[in-house]
Design goal:
The strands form three sheets. Strands 1-2-3-5-4 form a five-stranded mixed β-barrel. It is 47% helix and 19% strand. By secondary structure, it is of the alpha/beta class. It has four domains: 125 residues, Nucleic acid-binding proteins (OB fold (Dihydrolipoamide Acetyltransferase, E2P), Beta Barrel), CATH 2.40.50.140; 156 residues, Succinyl-CoA synthetase domains (Rossmann fold, 3-Layer(aba) Sandwich); 37 residues; 49 residues, no CATH class. The chain has 13 helices and 14 strands. The termini are far apart. Strand 8, helix 7 and strand 9 form a beta-alpha-beta unit.
Length: 468
């Protein structure tokens, strides 16, 4: 800002003018007050130029012309200032007494009164730069996550029955909302969820109030906001936790924070932004008079559209009537067209049959006679049948010889063969006796011989250790 710093006064010009003011020779011209103010203005504007000044706003007045008149003061001095409509229309905040600001402007003299003042072309609150940077960073972060996407936002119900309002219970915003709702839609139920909407603790309390509103039964839409104020006053609506809580709302949310020129993060994430709390109330409370007027308007539009459509159809019907041909001529044309198509179809069918017949002949030449193929397959089948019969006979003979060998072996191992050689089989109770310890004196035993058997009674038993 070195190029904008005040320039030193040219001492020679000041001395010359001072001399002209303090010593007035008899032949010197006497200046009028207007001329003197003009010279002072030239000196101040030519030597000082553009300056940056920090101070507190005082005696602020927004004139009906759109210009701002105010004073800048510090602990020891003050200076008058003006900001014309073309410059103050670019401000993003509303100036007020007591606000610390930095202005840029030109020092000039208001000749009719001889007062010097600053004509400001820009103004920003002290510390607002840091807040603006934080606002932009959070805005870019949430935007990159898709929380501002239009497709995520829901439509506001046209005729809600239950509206929840999250705001201060003592502010002007709630009074405006209730007045509008009672005037425009008395049947709509309004539930106020109270919370503070300004200060360091406001954001967490607004979050809790929103969570309470989410639990209310049958709520169709929620309005959250407050009246106007400075950027610092509305800073709680730029809280990230509050923004994410708004996104999680089960019903559509209308953000109504401040005035039309005020924007907060809550405005971007809400389903709809209203320029003021009063506008939010008007959005959810459709006036019966307005609805009637709208219906009448739509009825008129429908009549006009219907008349226009009927005229268009009548014109089209007239054109078709003029284009209508004698039905007999039309039938003759269709008969000729039918004969032509029938001839073309007949020719196409003959060509198709001829082509298919040629293809069949080609296939027969490639494949051969089916009778010859059947004869060859029958001869091969007979040969296979004879071969299979011989193979089965040979296999049966082998199986029969093997079975006879196994039967002979089994017969040779039969206990009956041993009996035939002079031995016998002794059993007791159906169990073969293999040891003398299995019987005792007096037991009844059965003896199996080769040609029969006998039943005997044990009179004595002997063991090998007894001398046998």
């Amino acid at each position: 800002m070195s190029d904008l710093s005040p320039k030193p006064l040219v001492k020679t010009d000041v001395k010359t003018q001072s001399a002209a003011l303090t010593t007035a020779p008899s032949d010197a011209a006497v200046l009028s007050v207007e001329q003197l103010n003009q010279q002072i203005k030239q000196v101040i504007e030519g030597q000082i130029g553009t300056v940056w000044v920090q101070g507190e706003l005082s005696n602020f007045k927004a004139h009906s012309s759109g210009h701002f008149y105010f004073s800048l003061k510090d602990s020891k001095a003050q200076i008058s200032a003006v900001m014309f409509r073309g410059s103050n229309s670019r401000l993003r905040f509303k100036p007020a007494d007591g606000l610390e600001v930095i202005v840029r402007g030109r020092v000039t003299v208001y000749e009719p009164r001889g007062n010097y003042q600053i004509v400001c072309d820009s103004m920003e609150p002290v510390g607002a730069g840091a807040l603006q940077k934080a606002f932009e960073q959070l805005r870019d972060k949430l935007k990159s996550e898709g929380l501002f996407a239009p497709e995520r936002k829901r439509a506001i119900p046209s005729f809600p029955r239950h509206v929840a309002v999250v705001t201060s219970p003592t502010g002007a915003a709630i009074r405006d909302i209730l007045n509008i709702m009672s005037r425009r839609a008395k049947s709509v139920r309004v539930t106020v969820v109270p919370t503070v909407v300004q200060g360091e603790s406001a954001a967490p309390q607004i979050v809790e109030a929103l969570k309470k509103a989410y639990l209310l039964p049958d709520v169709d839409v929620i309005i959250v906001g407050r009246g106007g104020g400075s950027m610092e006053d509305m800073w709680c609506f730029n809280d990230e936790t509050l923004a994410r809580t708004v996104v999680l709302s089960p019903v559509p949310i209308i953000s109504a924070v401040g005035h039309e020129i005020d924007f907060t993060i809550s405005d971007f994430v809400a389903d709809l932004r209203a320029p003021t709390p009063s506008a939010a109330a008007e959005l959810v409370a459709k006036s019966s008079t307005e609805l009637g007027a709208r219906i009448s308007q739509l009825e008129r539009l429908l009549r006009v559209s219907l008349d226009r459509k009927l005229k268009t159809l009548a014109q089209a019907l007239g054109g078709l009537h003029r284009q209508l041909v004698d039905p007999r001529k039309k039938l003759q044309d269709l008969a000729l067209r039918n004969d032509d198509l029938f001839t073309r179809l007949e020719l196409a069918m003959r060509n198709l049959i001829k082509d298919r017949r040629h293809r069949v002949q080609m296939v027969r030449q490639c494949v051969g006679s089916p009778e010859e193929k059947i004869r060859e397959r029958r001869q091969k089948l007979q040969l296979k049948t004879v071969s299979l019969g011989k193979s089965l006979e040979l296999l049966l003979e082998k199986r029969k010889a093997r079975t006879q060998r196994l039967m002979s072996l089994l017969d040779s191992l039969s206990p009956l063969k041993v009996v035939e050689r002079g031995y016998s089989i002794v059993s007791k109770g159906g169990e073969v006796v293999k040891s003398s310890s299995q019987v005792k004196v007096g037991d009844e035993i059965r003896i199996r011989l080769a040609d029969g058997g006998m039943v005997a009674q044990v009179t004595a038993t002997e063991r090998k250790e007894d001398g046998l």
